[in-house]
Amino acid sequence: MGILEKFEQFEGEGARRYDRAVSRFSFILYWHALRDLKRIGVKGKYLEAGCGPGILAVRVARELGVQVVAFDLSADMIEIAKERARKAGAKVDFRVGDVESDYFGEFDVVYSTFSLHHWNDPEKGLENL
User: Fold this and answer.
1) What are phi and psi of 102, to 5 degrees?
2) Hey, what domains does the chain have and what are their CATH numbers?
3) In 10 A of CB 99, how many CB atoms?
4) Which has fewest Cβ within 10 Å: 6, 7, 62, 128?
């Protein structure tokens, strides 16, 4: 399956299905990332690449008390993420964007979980970040 076929699964109802599935076990999925971000203890601006429905970005913003900008290729995922942040009372700047071509500014911490395998050119994406 190519990158376009994978991406299509995260649009429309596919985005909602993904969110429902991942939300059920998000604690297991993201505990290590949240633990590691807490350990480094950096206060400032964080960038999350490939945020999907925003589960981790919302937790990072709330639990670490930092400014978070998070982006994803899927506009539908970003809408779900915005809704999640609003309900949680978390201030996260969610944007549609591409890791390989979009620039979001300077950050103190850049992180990504479970998205690298969706990138067409991981080297270019990492270089851009």
Assistant:
1) -95, 145
2) 3-128 (3.40.50.150)
3) 24
4) 6
